[in-house]
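From the pipeline queue, job 12 of 40. The input is one protein chain; the requested action is below.

Action: predict structure.
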Amino acid sequence: MINLFKSGGVVMWPLLLLSILSLSFIFERFFYWNNLANINNNNITQFTNLNYLKDINKKEIINNPYKKLLFKIKNFDLSTQRNLSIALSISLQSIQSEFDRYNNFFATTIAVAPLLGLLGTVFGLINSFSFIDIGNAGVNADEVTGGISEALISTAAGLIIAIINLVFTNYFKSIKNKQLRLMNEFCGKYESFFSSKNFN
């Protein structure tokens, strides 16, 4: 494996960095969405049964977007139903940034990794051509094939990294869309609950 990495040329180092960062962010997102799925399975309607917003403290909102949403609206004037709707909408938008965490990195990696692989291809072909001695066929065969090997390995590495990031990005995007629908449903339920307790 080490020899294969070395034979890929200098571009393998930035590709290695991208792969390490990508895997760490993918694992973080996977556990984040898995935790959120567990919250959904534990009946999110329990949060709408909180009698007062003051019941929520800052320690409880970590990794729980539902409680975080309710904690955020405590800073708004909730004297009217319109204000409550605006507060829920603004708070929901701020939480969406958590759902989109690392998306820019994934998008950049999907675009940059194949380009780095292509750059490695160029370097490998340049090395191959530099060893070609016209009129002496076969004299530098090892060096020529080594340059071609560098080109192929770096290209394959770049494509593999991009494909993995693309697959997980689309997977996380589908989960995010589903979660946003649940969050909007939750906001509607909470608004109805809060309004019935305070505006009637």
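Job complete. The chain has a mean pLDDT of 79.
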